[in-house]
Amino acid sequence: MTNIKQRGWLLAILLLALTINLSSATKSLVLCNDDNIVNPRAIKEIEKIGNELKAKSDISIFLCVKKDINNQKIKSFEKNLLKGYKKPYILLTLSKAEKKVDIATSSDVKKYIDIDEVLSPFSGTIIPILTERKGKDKYSAAMLNGYADIADRVAKALGIKLKSSIGNTNRILINILRVIIYGSFLYFVVFYIKRKYFTKKKR
């Protein structure tokens, strides 16, 4: 009878340990998302991509989307947020009110990603969407594309294949969007210069 009780307790302890391990393994990579600024559908895709990369590389890509950060410097906000989190990690942060977006990484991950390239309005996948689209949904699109871009770059650097990758289709669309945005801007600059030149000529 004693052996049966002991086995029962042992089984209970093993099940508890397994439950704790599973819950920590599936811990959300979305640290904050005020008022569902990024919609649930995009969050689901983000976590799918992040969990696959985490399983294959042990690198966590966190996401934090805030309504505002009380006019803090975004680097200070990120530093405080990341206290206690285990390396290696990457954090993609957006503050809606301050109109700030940034990427922070632990020192051991910097070699896998060019942050300036991801955040560039010319080569990146975040800024073109934020500057062109209107409405709440632009944040969902920008964060999903930015997050996926980061994951793909890290995976490529490590020689990892991600099944959850959103692939090149979105990048082609973003490149088209980028051409439209900066093409339009260039057109208006040329138009303004021409108009100013001809007005002066007439005088």
Question: Strand order within the widest sheet?
Answer: 1-2-3-4
Whole-number mean pLDDT: 80
What is the strand content?
5-15%
**Shape label:** globular
**Which parts are unreliable, with pLDDT below 50 for 5 consecutive residues or more?**
15-26, 172-185
Brief summary of the model shown:
The chain is an alpha/beta fold and 203 residues long.
Could you explain the architecture of this structure?
The chain is α/β, with parallel strands linked by helices. The chain is built from 7 helices and 4 strands; from the N terminus they run H-E-H-E-H-E-E-H-H-H-H. The chain has helices spanning 2-25, 40-57, 74-81, 115-119, 127-132, 137-158, 169-202; strands at 30-33, 60-66, 89-95, 100-105. A 4-stranded mixed sheet has the order 1-2-3-4, sandwiched between helices. It is globular, with a radius of gyration of 23 Å. The chain starts with a helix and ends with a helix. Mean pLDDT is 80; it is low at 15-26 and 172-185.
